[in-house]
Amino acid sequence: MARKILIFDTTLRDGEQAPGIHLNVREKLEIVEQLDKLNVDTIEGGFPVSSRSDFNSIVEISKKIKSRYIAALARAVIKDIDIAGESLKGAAFPVIHTFISTSDIHLEYQFKKTRQEAVELAKAAVKRARNYTDRVEFSAMDATRSDRDFLCRMYEAAIKSGAKILNVPDTVGYALPAEFSNLIDYLFENVRGIENIILSVHCHNDLGLAVANSILAAQHGATQIEVAVNGIGERAGNAALEEVAMIIDTRKKDLGLCTDINLKEIIRTSSLVRHLTGYTVAPNKAIVGKSVFTHEAGIHQDGMLKHRTTYEIMKPEDIGSRASRLLLGKHSGRHAFSKRVEELGFTLKDEELQKAFNRFKDMAEKKGEISDDDLKAIINNEIREIEQYYKLKYYQVVSGSSIKATATVGIEIMGKLIESASYGDGPVDASFKAIDKITGMKAKLIDYNIEAVSEGKDAIGVVKIIVKSNGMEVMGSGISTDIIEASIKSYLDALNRIVILKSNHILKEP
After folding, report:
1. Alpha-helix residue ranges (DSSP H) falling in 316-426
2. Homologous superfamily of 390-503 in CATH?
3. pLDDT band for position 445 (50/70/90)?
């Protein structure tokens, strides 16, 4: 009989630490609802002491989701523990996840603590957390670069203090698979009481080994794997949820493992996270990339036509994937539109549905037929937009090979229309400079990316940018059949996010 592996999702906590990602409470709740459909075991909602936004997110997640463990992160500091406990008051199944480093390099240079001081802090933190919940997880940060005997002593202290889950993080993605599995074996052999707790692993992808290390750890006895959708996270990211889940399912007979993940929700979950975070997925990304089920080589096509299993080890329908097809056009009515939106897995309120339908009709007038990918883009980028302090009313550009580009942009701010014009190095640059004159904000463009979400000359384009303001990187996105309009929308989206971050005191004035 297959042994169940618990899936601990940290998309909203560790995943959100990726540069430029700043999800608001509403966006986090959308992702949480999808994670609930995906059937993960634990959802880590954030780091409540770090910001009011994270605290409020966990409060709202705890109210909304009653069938999952909801986790809040806390340093091994009493204040952190108390704030985490407060944020989880409404949770049906609360988890406090507390941590401290165990590697000498971290203790000496980052924490300025001795080994014994670290042990005492961990014990106090776990005991305090037990006042709020029976399910306390303790992480030994940088475990893979820690002295093994000291690591065992730390874990034993956490168990004696009441921890029910021990987490083994490969914090900097340094461990080789053989080293990591050997460490798991060592812990099982040397930590007293480990047989009575859940052993979890949290692997980073700096050397591209996060998923491999996670799977191997599970083979060697770990019972929980910590993951993020699309593998997002700090630096090179975390173990990708979809890869871990599909490896375990595809090779379940050989691994002797299973999960409760609803595989048919994988594509939908990946797509939602991709749109809300602005982090694109490479076409060749395992499981969820666009080219995963595409066969171009003649030999491969011949084999596929004769028998699918010649070159496919998974079925696209198993993960909720299907070929995009043209369905709706400018003559389609609201009922047909509503039915297709529902079939695509979206649940919209009446006003959201009407807004989406109006936007769909505008798009259909411009490009005729609307594909499923177009619909997804409209909903993900237009209907789920954040609060708009700056609203685009109109723009006009003049550009050519022999003249300097100029742009005139009209922006509505609190009901008042303000316009400005500027020159620039091309129409997009001119538009951004005109917007800067209106807003008085100076955001430095760090990255600019455009992606077609459907096929044809009239395809909808999604522009995603990263801007830097007062030391913090913020993402923005916009869609249109017009590249310049999409670019302007993406820039305004980023500026609106900066306004929200400032109002939440996350982004401070210099």
Report:
1. 334-343, 350-367, 372-378
2. Alpha-isopropylmalate synthase LeuA, regulatory domain (3.30.160.270)
3. very high
